[in-house]
User: Fold these one by one.
Assistant:
Number 1:
Amino acid sequence: MSLAAGHTGQDLSTEVLLCTYNGAPFVVEQLQSILSQTKRVTKISIYDDRSSDDTVARINDFVTQQPPDAQQLFALHVNPSNLGYALNFINAIEHASQDILFLCDQDDVWGPQKVESLLELFEDSAPDMVFSDGTIIDQSGQEVDRITVLHSYGFGKGKEDIAHFREHAFELLMKRNYVNGAAAAVRRVTAQSALPLPCDMPHDYWLAIWCSLHGGVVATPQVLYRYRQHRHNVIGIGSSSPMYEWLGIWRHPTVPRERELRIWRAVTTRIATLPCSHKIDAARRKLDWLTRVVSRDKSFSRVWEIAKSALNGNYRQYSGKDSFLRDLVSLLK
C-alpha cells in the first residue's frame, strides 16, 4: 500500500492512540509532550483499560485545563472491562478514524519533533509503518544508559543498517521484534486490515510483520522519544547484565522458545494467502525448524538438530541471540 491518492505527508490526518492502565504517575507528562509537538495531531484518542487508580481523573483534569481548541482534540474512552495491554491497542486501532495512527504508551515522553519527523518518512518513502530510535529513562525521567533503544535491540544507527532494514524487514523480524510500538506510526487502513491478532503476541510485533509484507517498514535513527523503564512495565528493555541474562535463561529456558513457536505457527497460518510466496516460504522454513528444535524432549534426534543448527546458521537466521543457549539448557534441565 502507498500514499492514498491526493494525500501528501502534509495533509494526512493523524491520530494518537494512547492506551492507559494505572498510569497516573506519568500520563500527564506524556499528554503534555503530545500537545507540545511542532506539528499538531488531528485527534488524541485515549482508551483506558479500567484503571483502578486516578488515571482517568488526571486525564480529565489535564484536558479541562487546556484551551478550547486543544480540548477538542481529545476523546476519552473507558473500556467496559479490562482487555489487557495488546487487546486494548487492537481495540483502539479498530475504532480509529484518521489516516496515520501514532501508537502511544502512557509512561513515555515524546520529543517535540516526533510527529513531524515520522510524517516526513511517510511522504519520502511511502511505507505502511515507520519507527524511530529513543533514549531510555528511569522512573524519574533520567537517562539510564548511553545506548539507545534500537542499540539495545542490536540495531545499528548507520545509513547502511537503516537501508538494510527497509529492504529486508520481514527477514529481520523473523529473528526478533525491532519495532517498539511507542516509537511507531502506521497507516490506519493497513493496521485495520491486520486485525485481529493471530494469537497472544505483542501487537507492535504483529503490525510490523504485517506491514513488512505490504507497503514496507522504514526506520529512522533519529531519537524522537524517551522510553521509560520502571517496575510496572508490561514490556520493557530488561537488564543488560550478563548475569541477569544467564539467570533468566537457566530459570526459564523453554517458555520464551515455546512462545516463539506458538507465535510463528499462528503468523504462518495467517499470512499463508498473501501474494508474497518467497517470504511465506521463509516463514514456513522457520516454523519447520522451530518445530524440530523447540521441545522438552531430550532425544538424540533433537540433540543432533540443535547441534547441526548451531553449525549451519539456522540460529543466526531465525532466532535471537539467546535461542541456542535456551535450547541447550533445556537439554540439561
Note: The radius of gyration is 20 Å.
Number 2:
Amino acid sequence: MQSNTFGVNFLIRKDRANKDGLIPIYCRININSQALKISLNLNISAADWNDDLQLPKKNCKNSKTITNVIEAFKSRIYQVYSNLLASNIELTPANFKTSFIGKKTILKTHTLIDTATEHNINFEKMIGIKYSYGSYKNYKTTLKYLIEFIPIAYKKKDIPLTEVDYKFCDAFFSFLTTTKACKNNGANKQIQRVKKIINYAIRLGYIVSSNMGTYTLSFKPAKRSALTLIELGKLENLSLERKDLERVRDIFIFQCYTGLSYIDMKRLEHKHIYIDDKEELWIKMERQKTGGSFSIPLLKPALRLLKAYKILYPDEDMVFPVLSNQKINNHLKILQELASISKNLSTHIARHTFATTITLSNNVPIETVSRMLGHTTIRTTQIYAKVLDTKIETDMAGLKKSIK
C-alpha cells in the first residue's frame, strides 16, 4: 500500500494586496507532492505577519481572532484528512477540496448573540423533557443582558465568539453589578450561563476552544433562612377572613412539612399519593427541575391539609389550587406581616424549613433528607443543612453534664 505525504502551511499572498494594502491569508496543503491553496477570507498587513510562526504577530490588532480562525481551519483540515483515510477514498487535492469545501460553515464567523439565541431556541424545545421552564427563563434574561451590554461595551450589536474572553467577563461583571444592580452571585450566575453557551458553541464546532478559561467565578455562600417552630406555629394559628390568603397559607405550611418546591407543589396530583402496607401515606414524584425521584412520608400537619382539600375539591386531580409563584409570594408578604414574622417569607423558605427545622434539627440523617428533597448529591442538601442554635444547645447539654 502506497503511503501518502501530507503537509499544511499558512502564508500570505503579497501579489494579491487590496487597495488598502492588506494581503490575504491562504492555507497551502501539500498532498502527495501536489499543492492545494485555500483562502481563509482574512486580510492582514505584511508587517503584522510572522512567516516563521505562520501566525499574526502578537501586536497585531486582530491577532487573537485571526489566530483562532487559523487554529479552527487547521483542525478542520486534519479532520477531513482523517475522514478520507478512514473511508479509503483516494487522497488527491481534488477529493480533499470537495470534502473540505462541502462544509458551508467552515469560514462562517459565529457571534455571541446569534449563538445565544440559537441555544435558547433549542433549550426551549427541551422544557419538561430535559430542562425546566425556570432555567429557560434564566437564559432568556442572560440573552437580554447581553443584547443590552454589547452595544455599550463594543459599539456594535454583536461580537465574534472568539472575543468572549477574560476582558469580556470582567466588563460584563461590572455592567451587571452597576448598571443592572445584580449582586455578586447573580452576576456570576449570568457569566456562568455565558460559559455554558460557549461550551454549546464548541460542541457544535463553531469555535475550537473557549477564551474564558482564565476567568474565575467567585460565589459567596448563600444565607439560607428557615422558620422556627414558633414562627411556623404563628402562621398555622392565624385566623384569616380572606380565602385566598388562607389557601396560600395552607400551601406554604404543606411545603414546610413536605419540602416540596413551588413547581412540584403546583404539579402535585392525587395520583402522586401512595398508601404503603402500614396504611401510611406517601408522596412519590419526580422532581421537575432534575428529574430525580423522591419519596416523602406525610406528617400529621400535612395529612390534615391533604384531607381538608380533598373535601373542598373532591373532583379535582390537583391536590391544591396553586397560584402563580409571583402571586403566592405577594400573598406571603401579607401573611408575614399578619403573623409578625421578621423573615421574608417565600416559597423557597418553606423548603428550607423542612430541611432544617422539621428534619435535620430532629435527628433525621442528612442522607434521608437528601432523598426526600430529591437531590442528586448530598452536597446540595448541605446548603440547606443550617443547624439551629436550639439544636446545638440540645446536643451540647449532655456533654456539659458529662464534663461536670
Note: The chain has 15 helices and eight strands.
Number 3:
Amino acid sequence: MDLAAYLDHTNLKADARREISSRLCEEAARYKMAAVCILPSRVKQAAQLLAGSGVKVCTVAGFPLGAEESDTKLCTIERALENGAAEVDMVINIGAVKDGDYQPVEREIRRAVALEKQTPFLLKVIVETALLTGEELVALTKLVARCGADYIKTSTGFAARGVSLQDISIITAARPAGLRIKASGGIKDLDFALRLIEAGADRIGSSSAAFLMEEYIKRGGR
C-alpha cells in the first residue's frame, strides 16, 4: 500500500510559524504525500514551496467552529483558490444540525460545490463527529453526498475527541458510491491510521504524518 498517498500533512494551529509551514511542505514533498493542510494565511507560501512536487495545497474554511455565515466561508474558499489551494476542508454549521435544521447546511455545501465549476478543486466537508449522534452522522453523510461534495471529513481536531473507528464504520455503511472519507483528529499512531484505512478512510489528516511515514518505512512499507 502507498501510505503516503493517503496522508494530508497538517498544521492548523494558531501559532504555526513560517518555518513550521516550510518544514511541513518539505516533509510532504519528500514522502510524496497527498496534500499539505495549512491555514489560509499560509496557502500562497505553501503553493510556492510545493510547485511541481505533486503534493496538493489544502486549506480550511469556517474553521474550527463552522459558525461563520456562508458568504464568509465562500469568500475564504475563493481567496484560497486564487492563492493556489487545490483542496478545501469546510466546517459545516453544526449548530443548525443541532437545531434539526439541515436546510442551511445543504445550501452552504451546494454553494461551495458550485465553485468547483469555476475553479476545479476538491471539497471536503467537516462534520465534527465528536458532536454528533449516530443518527445525525448518517443524515449528514447522505446530505454531503447528495450535495456533490468530494469528501466527508470527520473532525477539526479541536473538539473533545478526534475520529473513531465507529465514526468511519457509520459513514462507510451510510455513504453512497462516490463519496470519499477523510479521517482526522488524534491520529498519531500508525496502527490506528492503518485500521482507519481498512475501515474505509480514503484520506488521513494528521499533524504526525511524517512520523507515520517513518514508522511505516521501518516496518518495510514504501
Note: Residues 3-218 form a domain with the TIM Barrel fold (CATH 3.20.20.70).
